[in-house]
Write a structure and sequence with these properties.
This protein is an all-alpha fold and 464 residues long. It has one domain: Growth Hormone, Chain: A. The chain is 77% helix and 0% strand. The protein has 23 helices and no strands. The longest helix has 29 residues.
């Protein structure tokens, strides 16, 4: 297989999981409202098992098509569960710890990435003989979840507001809180929310309702700003980025994973102290600065090779900035900005934006890297000439390479910087602080803000 075809197949194999996740996110509302939050997680868990089995079987069948189908199925699971998990966590968590508990979902996510990086080492399972076993490791958490999750109660909010089962909701709350006084207070708050909630919101009504317009725009900007700011490109292709300059690039990739986990834990401890808004603003502006530095360093690296260590430092800083705010918050902010009826659709919308952004970056980032383009053009110059009907002697290699360098190269990071700056600006102007506020309190702000610019509303855009 020619090198350029192999690169395309490789990037497609990586990105097809994210495309599957984009499709899977379409089923979040149907599952969450029909079977409940906890039961839906158990139902979609079977996709994890099927996907892992297909990926494992691809080696025995010697078929990369089976591997791609397996990753597609596993992507369907990811798209569903990465919305259902924070939805369930948000609804069972106490108000004053809601953001911190939701951040634990991102801690698990980052930890899984690190485990995958370690498993992918050639000294572990990243070998010709054991790679299929590596891809089937997700069977372990899937089976553990089937044993443990049935012991957890269903979301009290779902039981009371969606199903009208007050006694079952009270029993679930008692199991979660253990304090009858807290249960009574929270039950009254849920009843008040139920009184203001419209049942059976359709997708058309979701996008048409005026009180949802500002939250929808906020979710759109925050999630696209998070996913298209460069983080996922670095996570997916950090090893290739470092390979051209470091002999042990795989260990630097492990450093990326370790920093990712560390700053997700930092976000966990800061979430209920600093608040969502401050962490988002700090994260987006830091990501923009890091992307600017990446552009500068990459542009002069061929002149000053000693700057390669600075490039690694900038990559670590970008990962830190992402996990400090945009990473974890983008996954659960929709659950706080919408009421009970709109929350499942909002989480599905969040999942579509997140996985759609991941898919685009995973598919397009390799061709945008200068190193990849140069290798492909140099190694396949004869193929290019043949396709264009030119004799090999007439090929103008420098001109072809020059055109590609102008189109992408290090300047791709400026695109990421622009996205981060746009997300920072809109967050500064429009996003309210949701820390320590009940779901009904936040929804009331938007219901009362219909037709009124949110930045003129008392209580919005404050750091307190």
């Amino acid at each position: 297989m020619p090198d350029h075809s192999l690169t395309l197949l490789w990037s497609f194999s990586v990105s097809v999981k994210d495309f599957g996740a984009l499709l899977g996110s379409l089923g979040v509302k149907c599952l969450a409202d029909s079977y409940g939050r906890r039961n839906s997680i158990l139902i979609v868990n079977c996709l994890s098992v099927v996907g892992a089995c297909l990926m494992f079987a691809s080696k025995a069948s010697e078929s990369f098509e089976v591997l791609i189908v397996g990753r597609l199925v596993f992507g369907l699971f990811c798209g569903l569960v990465m919305s259902l998990n924070p939805l369930y966590i948000q609804e069972v968590s106490p108000t004053d710890l809601r953001g911190a508990f939701a951040t634990l979902n991102q801690v698990s996510f980052a930890s899984g990435i690190l485990v995958g990086m370690v498993a992918g080492l050639e000294t572990a399972l990243g070998t010709e003989h054991y790679w299929a076993m590596m891809l089937s490791l997700s069977l372990i958490p899937a089976l553990i979840q089937y044993l443990v999750l049935p012991l957890c109660p269903e979301s009290p909010r779902y039981l009371l507001i969606n199903r009208g089962k007050e006694k079952e909701a009270e029993a679930a709350l008692l199991r979660l809180r253990g304090n009858p006084d807290k249960v009574f207070t929270e039950l009254e708050e849920m009843k008040e929310e139920a009184a203001h909630t419209h049942t059976g919101v359709t997708i058309h009504e979701f996008f048409k309702r005026r009180s949802y317009r500002q939250p929808i725009i906020l979710v759109l900007i925050i999630n696209l700003g998070s996913q298209l700011s460069g983080f996922n490109a670095i996570i997916n292709y950090s090893t290739r980025m470092f390979q051209a300059r470091f002999d042990e690039a795989k260990y630097l990739t492990l450093g990326v994973g370790a920093v990712n986990v560390t700053f997700t834990l930092v976000a966990f401890f800061l979430m209920e102290r600093a608040g969502r808004r401050r962490l988002l603003l700090t994260g987006f502006i830091s990501i923009a600065v890091c992307n600017l530095l990446m552009t500068i360093v990459d542009s002069v690296l061929h002149l000053v090779p000693e700057l390669r260590s600075l490039q690694v430092l900038v990559v670590f800083c970008l990962i830190s900035a992402y996990e400090l705010g945009p990473g974890p918050i983008s996954w659960f902010i929709a659950a706080e900005l919408f009421d009970q009826s709109g929350r499942p659709i909002a989480m599905a919308f969040t999942s579509m934006l997140n996985w759609g952004g991941k898919f685009v970056l995973a598919l397009l980032f390799p061709p945008l890297l200068v190193e990849t383009v140069e290798i492909n053009l140099t190694a396949n110059l004869g193929n290019i000439c043949r396709d264009e009907g030119q004799p090999k002697a007439e090929a103008k290699e420098p001109n072809q390479l020059g055109r590609y360098k102008k189109a992408c190269g290090a300047f791709v990071y400026l695109l990421f910087m622009t996205v981060a700056l746009l997300a920072f600006t809109f967050t500064w102007i429009r996003l309210p602080e949701t820390k320590g506020r009940t779901f009904d309190d936040i929804a009331e702000e938007f219901r009362g803000a219909e037709g009124i610019p949110l930045h003129n509303k008392t209580g919005f855009n404050t750091f307190t």
